[in-house]
Amino acid sequence: MPVQTAVPKDVTKKAQEKSKLLLPIINAVLAAVVIAAGVIIIINPGNKLSTDEGSSSDSLSESRTAPSSESEPGAAAESSSAAESGTEISSLPQVTTAATAETTAEAATTTSEETTTTTQAATTAETTTSKKTTTTKKTTTTAKTTVKPEDKNQSALDEAKSYSTNARPSFDEFEWCYGQNGLISEMPEGGKTISNPLGFSGGWKAMIIYNAYDSSAQYMRELNNINIEITGSEVKVTIDWYQMEVEGSELFNEEDMDDSVFTGYITESGIYISGDVDISIGRFWQQDGKEYAIGAIVGVDGTPGYLAMVRK
Q1: ∠202-207-211 over CA atoms, to 5°?
Q2: How large a percentage of the chain has pLDDT more than 70?
Q3: Element at 147 (helix H, strand E)
């Protein structure tokens, strides 16, 4: 059977007394641990109160002094040290806050500078975009050749000379002046007016029909050569008489007659001669490689006549 060992009573008594002595020390240590934990927990809220209200030192001192009435003197000393330590710790967040404020200000300044740079860049881009590109158009101007009056006159005179003729006419060459309604008095359709008076110059074949519009009078017609000279606004007309035809009789040769010379002036559309013989020629034109002219003549005896001229 098991053997039970007997414990002396004095040993048990000493152990109990020793336990009683250790109990206050253990309680004091536990109290110190609790106070330290409280200090650690309170440190951060104290900093917040210091930042917001400016009275964190007083609140922190009161909160840490309260346990001293229940604690041992040693615990109060530890609490005081903790309070002093807490005061030093509470000042650190303030420095950190100032540094953070400076850092924030620098960050804001940097952001402002970046924004300004971006705005300037955007403004520059807008300015560049708003510039209008001007395209210079090259205009090619074709210089018009100005023909001097003397050149025009010379051209008209040269052309007139190319048509001029001294050949004797025939009645067959004047069929063109007999229109459907009788003798024509206007330029036919398709004709080109000779506007420069120098174009009238030179020799022409001519036919004169006397009493052309008087059926009761004797019908006569005559072939002649007419030469026109233009000097400024003055006109000189020379008639070289050639041949006369009287209705119902043979032809009469007039070549032995002296030439007749008349002077006059330029009109808006032709020439006009006034004197012993009146001559008015108001239409000069070109058509189908020939030049034509029509007008009227009144003889010395007052006999009216129809005048037609042609050359090629």
Answers
A1: 140
A2: 55
A3: none
What stretches of 196-289 adopt beta strand conformation (E)?
A: 202-210, 220-231, 234-246, 251-253, 260-266, 271-273, 278-287
34 confidence band (pLDDT: 50, 70, 90): low
Neighbouring-strand partners of residue 66 = none
> Based on the domain organization, do 294 and 161 belong to the same domain?
yes
How many domains are there within the chain? Answer: 2
Residue 145 lies in a domain: no
How many secondary structure helices (H) and strands (E) does the chain include? 4, 12
Quick check: is 120 in a domain? no
How far from 183 is each of 32, 204, 240, 281, 295, CA to CA, in Å?
Answer: 154, 19, 23, 15, 11
**Of 80-94, 97-111, 277-291, highest mean pLDDT:** 277-291
Q: Are 207 and 223 in contact (CB under 8 A)?
A: yes
Instruction: Note whether residue 187 is domain-resident.
Output: yes
pLDDT at 27: 72
CB contact set of 91 (below 8 Å; sequence gap of 6+): none
Residue 261 and residue 207 in one domain: yes
- How large is the average pLDDT for residues 196-208? 97
**Does residue 149 have a pLDDT over 60?**
yes
| Lowest mean per-residue pLDDT among 141-145, 208-212, 255-259 | 141-145
CA distance 199 to 247: 35
122 within a domain of the structure (yes/no): no
Residue with tokens 């008087």: 214
Give me the domain span that covers residue 83: 13-112
**Residues 178, 291: one domain?**
yes
**Angstrom distance (rounded) from CA 225 to CA 259:** 10
CA 233 to chain centre: 53
Q: Are residues 99 and 164 in the same domain?
A: no
